[in-house]
Automatic annotation (TrEMBL):
<dbReference type="Pfam" id="PF05949">
    <property type="entry name" value="DUF881"/>
</dbReference>
<comment type="similarity">
    <text>Belongs to the UPF0749 family.</text>
</comment>
<feature type="coiled-coil region">
    <location>
        <begin position="79"/>
        <end position="106"/>
    </location>
</feature>
<keyword id="KW-0175">Coiled coil</keyword>
<dbReference type="InterPro" id="IPR010273">
    <property type="entry name" value="DUF881"/>
</dbReference>
<protein>
    <submittedName>
        <fullName>DUF881 domain-containing protein</fullName>
    </submittedName>
</protein>
């Protein structure tokens, strides 16, 4: 039955390829019958119905606009309030961290031990460091504009990507960097630079251009990085895609400490119970 119905449909399609409405209109033209026309009353009713629907839609949009605007304003205010709270908490963390460091140094009787501990913390990224170094700035290329039409090109090959910042950071490590920060976000051994939804995240915190990768290290770190393969590749980006790339030596750089890593707890194994002596008599 299914194949029969399918054959009937195909047969009807080939027998009557013209839509019935078109066929009726063609027949009226051959007979000289004018097509049906709406009268003034029908047109007036139609226009009135369309106008009523437009008025209802307009009033609904106008009525919902204030509530949508209030919801957006409330959301923006909530985000800003939470940002201020996070900044206040971060300042408290910095103060408490300084107090903890001072108490730790005072508690250590050996000065060399305190210095060693500070060096390890600086290398791990959990302590603020100060020194001379270099700042590598990478900026998105301006969008291309057609000189004839004035339209902006949809694709911009000079946009800074997360892997570009990764390459700059790795190149600075290879050039002798001892501490690196991206837009103030200190890098550690477990840091990540990745993209999410078109935004670059450094340790899950968004950073925006211009991107400044600051590094403290050896006195010749700027020269070593400038002559590296990474710097040469970015100069090609400047020539081909109009990306902005600069390397500048800086004195007295201050790189803030990274947040404390999450603590992991370890439980010692239960002590093994040795069998007690039998205490038998001879």
């Amino acid at each position: 039955m299914t194949f029969a119905r399918r054959d009937d449909l195909l047969g009807d399609l080939f027998r009557t390829p013209l839509d019935p409405g078109y066929a009726q209109a063609a027949a009226r033209r051959r007979e000289g019958t004018p097509p049906p026309r709406w009268g003034p009353a029908a047109r007036a009713v139609t226009l009135a119905a369309v106008g009523f629907l437009l008025a209802v839609a307009y009033h609904q949009v106008v009525a919902e606009a204030p509530s949508a605007s209030r919801a957006r304003d409330d959301l923006v205010a909530d985000v800003r309030s939470r940002q201020r709270t996070a900044e206040d908490l971060q300042r408290q963390v910095d103060v408490l961290r300084t107090q903890v460091d001072e108490a730790r140094d005072n508690a250590l009787a050996d000065a060399s031990g305190a210095a060693t501990l500070r060096g390890l913390a600086a290398g791990a990224g959990t302590a603020k460091v100060t020194g001379d170094g270099v700042v590598v700035r990478v900026v998105d290329a301006p969008p291309q504009v057609d000189p004839v039409t004035g339209h902006t090109a949809e694709e911009n090959l000079g946009i800074v990507l997360d892997r570009d910042l990764q390459d700059v950071a790795n190149g600075l490590w290879q050039a002798g960097a001892e501490a690196i920060a991206v837009n103030g976000q200190r890098l550690t051994a477990t840091s990540t630079i990745r993209a999410a939804g078109g935004v670059i995240l450094v340790d899950f915190k968004p950073v925006t251009g211009p991107y400044d990768v600051a590094a403290i290290g050896s006195p010749d770190i700027a020269d070593r990085f400038s002559s590296s393969t990474t710097a040469r590749r970015f100069r090609r980006y400047v020539d081909n895609y109009r990306m902005q790339f600069t390397v500048k030596t800086r004195k007295g750089l201050v790189l803030a400490a990274a947040p404390e890593p999450p603590l992991r707890y370890a439980h010692p194994p239960a002590p093994s119970v040795s069998p007690s002596p039998t205490g038998g008599h001879r």
